[in-house]
Amino acid sequence: MTENNRIVLAYSGGLDTSVSIPYLKERTGKDVVAVSLDVGQGGERLQTIRQRALDCGAVESVVVDARDEFARDYCMLALKANAMYEGVYPLVSAISRPLITKHLVQAAHQYGADTIAHGCTGKGNDQVRFEVSIMSIDPSLKAISPIRDLGLMRDVEIAYAKEHRLPIEQTEESPYSIDQNVWGRAIETGYLEDPWNGPTKDVYSYTDDPAFPPVEDEVTIDFEQGIPVRIDGRAVTPLEAIEEMNRRAGAQGIGRVDLIEDRLVGIKSRELYEAPGAVALITAHQELENCCLEREQHRIKRDIDKRWGELVYDAQWYSPAVRSLNAFIEETQRYVSGRIRMVMHGGRAVVTGRHSDSSLYDYSLATYESGDSFDQNASNGFIAIYGLADKVAAARDMRFGNGIAQDGQEQ
């Protein structure tokens, strides 16, 4: 093998990346190493995809079952951060790209490649996520996209596949572009590009119609330091927790999102998402944080959570900023342990019970019944000191005729 005479390709097994294997070889003269990851997207078996890559001309084909790694090291970080881009989107695609890139870079080092190829277009966020992640892990590696850089269009790809007798079966093309993994499912393009058009039933796969739900489903989730460890008393791994909540929350139609989204590349895009497990788990986790985080820490964390989601959406997973935020978020989870009871029904997940040995909720302080330990007389001095600055400022305003009138308007 000649050093740096190989390209590592992020290989999905579909038309785009299958055609890319011989096309890259012809255009660059370099052999192609195909790398495929299972992050819970379903579909074909990894070994089937591996063999297809070899049949299309790859010199090596690496397949990785990364479901547990994805759930443990990526989805759980998003859960601890309550990550919801623009308040509603649980970063389904954004958190999988750094993991895929990590394995692409590892393969490049292992097989002596100096270039990594991916199948993204020039219009989306993922091209940025892949390439910024690559340069963040190893700045010496180059990145290319055959679809974007070499002008591969679908009709050209189909003709090329027929001419070269590639083992690709052409089926009726879906009108939608779909990306999915264990954390959720993203749907765009086609009929949905007109934002006036409502989603049709065929769009959804992870969730049932919330208008016709089964009987309500009550679930208890135990967390240890921000991680779900038991569901209804049964021990679960992070992957098992997500999969079970996908199934149960999905049956209730929870986690559907229809969003006009601000893309990183500067355009607005109509996006649909299904993330039943993610939404249900984040709902439970947020409520446990309400019990266990100190007030000022909690206020800061809500701001940090929002910023974390924006940075990760914007391809900054490996950035110094996100590393620093991760350290803060991890510290906040020290006491986020306990049990949440939640009722799921008709598209909603509603917390109905909370219990934590590390909760800051003190019944004797909160109760209005006998046994109240809160010293209400202390409030007089607290209010006097707390309102002192406002009192002094108001007195000044009145001296200059700028006080607040009785109707609440400035004089």
From TrEMBL:
One Pfam family linked to the record: Arginosuc_synth
Sites where the protein binds L-citrulline: 89, 125, 129, 177, 261, 273
Occurrences of domain Arginosuccinate synthase C-terminal (ranges): 176-392
Pathway listed: Amino-acid biosynthesis; L-arginine biosynthesis; L-arginine from L-ornithine and carbamoyl phosphate: step 2/3
One of the record's GO molecular function terms: argininosuccinate synthase activity
InterPro entries, per the entry: Arginosuc_syn_C, Arginosuc_syn_N, Arginosuc_synth, Arginosuc_synth_CS, Arginosuc_synth_type_1_subfam, AS_cat/multimer_dom_body, Rossmann-like_a/b/a_fold
The entry's keywords: Amino-acid biosynthesis, Arginine biosynthesis, ATP-binding, Cytoplasm, Ligase, Nucleotide-binding
Binding site for L-aspartate: 121, 125-126
Entry binding sites for ATP: 10-18, 119
Catalytic activity: L-citrulline + L-aspartate + ATP = 2-(N(omega)-L-arginino)succinate + AMP + diphosphate + H(+)
Any single Gene Ontology cellular-component annotation: cytoplasm
Gene Ontology process terms (BP): argininosuccinate metabolic process; L-arginine biosynthetic process; urea cycle
Subcellular location: Cytoplasm
This protein's record includes keyword Glycosyltransferase: no
Chief subcellular location: cytoplasm
Domain Arginosuccinate synthase-like N-terminal stretches: 6-167
EC number in record: 6.3.4.5
Enzyme class: ligase
Record family assignment: Belongs to the argininosuccinate synthase family. Type 1 subfamily.
Subunit structure: Homotetramer.
Protein name as catalogued: Argininosuccinate synthase
The species this protein was found in: Bifidobacterium asteroides
